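User: You have something folded?
Assistant:
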Amino acid sequence: MTELAALQDLIDRDAVTGALTHSAFMRRACAEMSNAQHSGQSLALVVFDLDHAAGDHVLSTFGSLLARRLGSADNIGRLGGEAFALLLRDSNIDAARQMIDRLRDDFNDVATFSAGVTMLTRGE
C-alpha cells in the first residue's frame, strides 16, 4: 500500500470501530450499487442500531464482530453514534436475515440491536 493510500485509508476509517466513516461508506455504497446494476448482481443493505448508549468498548466489539463475519471491514460503515450499515454483495433477503440472526446470537451477551435489510435487485 502506498503512503497516500495508507493515509486515505486512515482518513476513511472510524478510529473506534475500524469501519468506514459515514462519508466513505456512502461513496462505497454508491459504487457498489452502480456495480450491482451493471453486473445484474443483487446487493443487500443492512442497517443496525445498537439499542443503548454504547461506550467505545461496545462499539469496537460490534465493529470487530461485523468485520469477522464479513471477512473484511471494507463494506461496513459507522453511520454515526450507534448506527452501522453493511453491504452484502450477491446476497438475498433470507441470507441477510440469517446473518443478522447469527450476529444477534454472537453479540447478545454484549448488547442488543435493531436491524433492517433492503435489497437492490436487477433492474432497480
In short: The first strand starts at residue 43 and ends at 50.
